[in-house]
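This entry is listed as follows:

___
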Amino acid sequence: MAKGLIDEGTIAWNSISQNNLRVQWESAVFEIEEQFMKIACCTTRSLSQQDFELLRKIAGCQDYMAQENFEKMWCWLYLVALTLSSDRIKAMWNSTSPKWIEGFVTKEEVELSLQGPRSLQEPGTFILRFPTSRSWPHPDAGSLVVTYVGSDYALHHRLISLDNVYSSGVREMNVKVKQLQDMLFEEPELSRLGRIIRRH
């Protein structure tokens, strides 16, 4: 995995930068998306303006991006794309009705959305997200987190173990592996898919 991350990151940066030390963020966006969609084996759902804003935050850049900004962002994005390349996760990412995976959102955005305009949404409401604080080489990089309103009317964040969702050994044995959606709804604390509400 590390070799792929470094090799593909080097190719992507060379393609974006054309040997310049810094590139305009706006001119890098197309190439970043193309690389992401290639690794995620995704053809239907492209990155949104909000996704790009989050990527820019992760990179820590404004109008211009240097190689170190790109590498910071790539160490997060590459693992997310790899996760989405799994057929079971990809189907959820491509689904727009319902929108299972909201896109790239911060913990704060999810918490604000689940709090609703007046109070917490009803218990069992949950949103799936990729944690922005987990980049390679963190062991949880590329994992999904479910944030939900508990029966105690508090917000909870739980890392989803993707080992149960896909593993080459299980696939070879032709054992029926549970869909992630089914696994989520089997959890007693999860009953309703929430949405991201952006307040401008």
